[in-house]
Specification:
CATH architecture of the largest domain: 3-Layer(aba) Sandwich
Strand content: 5-15%
Oligomer: single chain
Radius of gyration: 22 Å
Number of strands: 15
CATH class of the largest domain: Alpha Beta
CATH topology of the largest domain: Rossmann fold
Number of domains: 3
Mean pLDDT: 87
Length: about 475
């Protein structure tokens, strides 16, 4: 997608925190078909406008101080986005948009690019993936192919590049010491010519990118990649930070997680809350699968000095639920950002050699097996959460998939609009299962609450209840 040029007539409304503007895209988004415009502006049940509006508002609200999706949508309840048809193309007309997206009447360039990425991905997902590929999505290979096509359409799959993408996971609600450490790790990665991919939000998703920009600048690397992957359900609580220069919106959390492990060549995990635990369980659920044993996939859990207790709790939870073998899937490094980067660099060499011998692509890991259980979208309702199979007799990689769903539901109940509404209407989700599994799960969640890792703003009210 070419960079957009913006023609804006903007000025303060009655409340100077809102702006009206007209934005003119160029390049691949200069023209939309009549059907595409009608689909985007369709406000009926099943139409795309509500989704398009929510994602656009989330992008425009980048840098906001709350992760409460309802508070964001309530504050900008009068926000509206329209597509103006012209003989030579289209314009986007914004009404009551967040003023923070503009500087002296002009939209910030990074936010401008993200706004058109929303337009591009929503149209592509619903036109090419859901409508034309609906049959494929019933099968594991079809789901992987859909993820590949979304990433390719977004321009993220660059050919003929050696493995160099480090995926960084971690909490959006973290303290200053932990945030500064994520920047130090990103800086060391950048100095070694490695690129960064995150969930694109604040906190541990922003810090590594910020540090990598300095490392790249010192090494005179002008083409640093700061890749952000998100999905509609989480984008309001974790809007893309301004450093992201390649953004893709995946259809749901499962396809977003698959995109991370398919394009990443190594993963660094910083401290976080329920969302980070969900990502860890997704990853170890893949790495514990016997079919993936031959694949090198460097994984480091890290944090600043003082995070030893956090990682001890996570490690104890993983071993207590999935068994001792899970420790083969990761290495814990505390307070040594340079060693984290060196571990990733060593891992890149092993990944490159394995992909070369296996004749697999460098830019997309086709050979990694991801079970259908991990690919299937999970809708966290009260019945679905209560029905999770949290039992000891399941194989470790399958149990990891069930535990991942439990944390996915907690994330929804913490920050997602639909999850928040369900908790308001029906009370906390209930988690049931074997006592020896629920005890370490309860202990980990309680530690997240004590450390204020469950929510960025406001007092946390648990959205879950453990029922032994």
């Amino acid at each position: 997608m070419k960079r957009a040029e913006v023609a804006i007539s903007a000025g303060p409304t009655e409340d100077d925190s809102f702006v009206d503007a007209r934005v003119t895209p160029t390049g691949s988004l200069e023209n939309l078909s009549q059907m595409e415009v009608d689909r985007l502006l369709d406000n009926s049940r099943g139409g795309l406008y509500p989704l398009y509006r929510r994602c656009s508002l989330a992008v425009l609200n980048s840098g906001g101080e709350t992760d409460d999706a309802r508070a964001i949508f309530d504050r900008y309840a009068d926000f509206d986005i329209d597509i103006v048809r012209q003989a030579w193309g289209i314009k986007l007309e914004l009404h009551n948009a967040p003023a923070a997206a503009f500087v002296d009447g002009r939209m910030i360039r990074g936010i401008q690019e993200h706004l058109f990425a929303v337009l591009r991905d929503i149209l592509y997902i619903h036109g090419e993936v859901y409508e034309h590929g609906s049959i494929e999505l019933r099968e594991s290979a079809g789901i992987t192919n859909a993820v590949y096509r979304v990433l390719r359409n977004a321009g993220l799959l660059q050919p003929r590049l050696r493995p160099d993408i480090v995926v960084c996971w971690g909490g959006h609600s973290i303290g200053r010491d932990e945030y500064e450490y994520t920047k130090l790790v990103g800086y060391e990665l950048g100095l070694r010519g490695l690129n960064v991919c995150t969930g694109c939000g604040p906190g541990a998703m922003k810090g590594p990118m910020k540090g990598a920009t300095i490392g790249h600048a010192k090494q005179r690397i002008p083409s640093g990649r700061y890749i952000g992957l998100t999905e509609p359900g989480i984008v309001a609580a974790e809007p893309p930070n301004a450093i992201v220069n390649q953004l893709a919106i995946l259809p749901d959390i499962e396809k977003r997680l698959e995109a991370f492990v398919r394009i990443g060549h190594g993963i660094v995990v910083f401290p976080g809350g329920a969302g980070t635990a969900e990502e860890i369980l997704y990853l170890v659920g893949i790495l514990l699968d016997p079919q993936n044993e031959p694949q090198p996939f460097p994984v480091v859990f890290t944090g600043p000095r003082g995070s030893e207790e956090y990682w001890h709790q996570v490690d104890a939870f993983l071993v207590g639920t999935l068994g001792e073998r899970v420790r083969q899937c990761y290495r814990i490094i505390v307070g040594d950002q340079a060693e984290v980067a060196r571990e990733m660099l060593r891992g890149m060499a092993a990944v490159r050699e394995y992909r070369r011998r296996a004749k697999d692509a460098y830019n997309f890991n086709w050979l990694l097996r991801i079970s259908h259980d991990l690919q299937q979208p999970f809708e966290p309702t009260h019945a679905a959460m209560a029905g999770l199979e949290l039992h000891r007799d399941a194989p470790p990689h399958q149990l990891a998939a069930e535990l991942r769903r439990a944390f996915s539901g907690i994330v929804a109940g913490n920050v997602k609009e639909t999850g928040l509404r369900l908790i308001d209407e029906h009370g906390p989700f209930e988690l049931q299962g074997d006592a020896e599994l629920l005890q370490p799960l309860d202990a980990l969640l309680a530690s997240f609450v004590r450390q204020r890792r469950m929510k960025l703003s406001g007092e946390y009210q648990p959205c879950y209840r453990i029922v032994a």
